[in-house]
Amino acid sequence: MSADLGKKPFSSDLDSILQSTGSSLLELRIKKELRAARRTRLENQQKEREETESLKELAKYESALAKKYIEECKNILRNNLAAGKFDWISYYKDEPYPPFVFKEPLPRYELIAREMGINRKDPIKEFFLPSLKKRRLEMEEEARRLYNLKLEEYRQREKSARAAYELKRKIFLEEQSQYNNSIDQLRLDLAKGQPGAVESFARTLLSLMKYPDAFEVEFDARYEQRDRLLVVEGVFCPPQEIPRTILYQYDEEEHGITPVEMEEQEFAEFYQEILLQLSLSAIHLIFLSCPGRLVEQVVFNGRVRAINHEVDPGEPQPCILTCRVNRDLYRCVDLSSVSPRAAFLRFNGIMSTPLTALKPVVPIQKMRPKPSPYPEPDPVPETQTSTPSPAPYQPGEIENMAKELVSDILEQIGNNWGRTGGQGGIIH
Asked: Could you tell me the residue ranges of all domains in the chain?
């Protein structure tokens, strides 16, 4: 019995994953493919290292990789700004199933006769030696019997192979149809604003973020439907896991390779630049592909996979940067022309520099502990009949308002200075 006959339905193997993570099939597929592609690229790099014949050439190769890595880090935000909106169509499965081909050769009577050593018909010899004719006819009859037997066995194997093919084809088309239906359902649930769908779609968008293979970032999201608010958290690598080598030098006397690394201050700025670009890229991707009627504001909390003496034991991944931005403010800031630090502060950002110190800050808004199950939505709170009390100030909100006010005043001063003609003008 074929193993495929006892195969479980496509969805049954994923039910536990979908329920525990709140993930859609689309999210799982994209993440799996991206991990596989990243692993392949890293394996190819390692293969190149192993095939390099000399240490001198290896130093050149490693230096080229280091240069490429630094360049990619500097352009994280630029590369993600260049990404277009999420293309749903490209993720549907529409590849055809390959046609049936039975590769086993068809039995041939001539080949069987040759293998049995049957002589060709020779009328002259058989006239004088009738036993030769009798022997030939007997062997030909046996060859035909054997040929018919092999032909029947061939047809049975072909029939069995075709049946197995049709079963696999049916399973393939069913899984393809179910997967495409799951995308349709996700799009429908997303249009309805179901929290589970919004969260899974947000995680899918963030998994497509472009950044170097040298490190990994984990993203999660929670959707507050009533406020049209998406709380996003990124878990970054700690400083010690971020490569800081500028180049590799070959030492001919020692016959070895020496890495040249960034100075501490240079690396601190480099690490901050990476984290801010990743944070801003996440905000950009969300606002770019999530409809405004669903997501009006985003809270981003940047955490690190690290523990130090200042971290609360109950929170092993400390938050070291946080910001809150609405769609109007996002549109007012040109991320392609301002520095990541300036843009982050404009987005009501809070952080304690240097980020390499991993000094925690209080998140503007924490994420709910567990993801919403997909596709079941979270219950929408009932409308309050009484007048709600004003929301309390969030941590850092007053400081951010002050920074924004000062920025607006300075901008107004600059505009007035330009209108009044420079040094001789009067500033009102």
From this structure: 21-98+177-378+394-417
